[in-house]
Write a structure and sequence with these properties.
The protein is α+β, with helices and mostly antiparallel strands. The chain has a domain at 21-112 and 121-167: Helicase, Ruva Protein, domain 3, CATH 1.10.8. 27% of the residues lie in helices and 9% in strands. It is built from five helices and four strands, in the order αααααββββ. The strands form two sheets. It has a two-stranded antiparallel ribbon. A two-stranded antiparallel ribbon has the order 3-4. Helix 2 crosses helix 5 (90-106) and helix 4 (67-77) crosses helix 5 (90-106). It is globular and about 50 Å long. The protein starts with 15 loop residues before the first helix and ends in a 7-residue tail after the last strand. It catalyses: 2'-deoxyribonucleotide-(2'-deoxyribose 5'-phosphate)-2'-deoxyribonucleotide-DNA = a 3'-end 2'-deoxyribonucleotide-(2,3-dehydro-2,3-deoxyribose 5'-phosphate)-DNA + a 5'-end 5'-phospho-2'-deoxyribonucleoside-DNA + H(+). InterPro entries: DNA_glyclase_Znf_dom_DNA_BS, H2TH_FPG, Ribosomal_uS13-like_H2TH, Znf_DNA_glyclase/AP_lyase. Residues 104-125, 156-199 are annotated as: Disordered.
């Protein structure tokens, strides 16, 4: 789910199963708590050593959770996105994700903090390099998932103890403040800022 919403209405088609038959239960479906939760838990349990962040993003397990709700859910649960699936209270995580997503679907703006002020709507998502709202430490971002399917995972290493990706420990720049680009094939890094000459 992004910041916009769309309504798609239509009936089943002949090729529908081929297109969406692989998807897990829809976390926003009315029947999810009664039927979809058990199916999602069964699918998640098939790969107990997989990282929970990657598993929640896999739409074959549960359909609808994107990077934002994965990051915010795991932050609120105090779970590292790199924690193995079998070490996580999955029912609690899925219930929390659903609550956040239902609330987000009924508001004009997606917001997990409850603070309506601009820039105060997320705990960790999109906030790398900024202070954690809970502990004041630096929020970080890293890639999660298989190399061909990597997605971003925002997290607070202090509030979400457990496995983390290897990094150098330096605070990272907030997203959107510049891009890191290799310069002339060297390992030196240049930061691009809009409105300034590159060089």
């Amino acid at each position: 789910m992004g910041t916009g919403r769309a309504l798609l209405a239509g009936g089943p088609t002949a090729g529908e199963s081929d297109l969406i038959g692989h998807l897990g239960p829809d976390i926003l479906a009315d029947a999810f708590p009664a039927d979809g939760l058990a199916q999602s838990l069964e699918r998640l349990a098939r790969h107990p050593a997989r990282t929970v962040g990657d598993a929640l993003l896999d739409q074959r397990n549960v359909a609808g959770i994107g990077t934002m709700y994965m990051a915010e859910t795991l932050f609120l649960q105090g779970v590292s996105p790199w924690q193995p699936v079998d070490e996580v209270d999955l029912p609690a995580a899925l219930h929390r994700a659903r609550r956040l997503m239902v609330r987000g679907a009924t508001q004009a703006q997606q917001n997990t903090t409850g603070d309506p002020r601009r820039g105060q709507d997320m705990f960790v998502h999109g906030r790398s390099g900024r202070p954690c709202r809970r502990c004041g430490g630096s929020v970080r971002v890293a890639m999660i998932g298989e190399p061909t399917r990597e997605r971003t995972a925002f997290y607070c290493p202090a509030c979400q103890p457990g496995p983390t990706p290897t990094d150098d420990g330096r605070p990272q720049r907030p997203l959107g403040t510049g891009s890191r680009r290799p310069v002339g094939g060297s390992t030196r890094v240049q930061t691009y800022r809009p409105g300034r000459a590159r060089g």
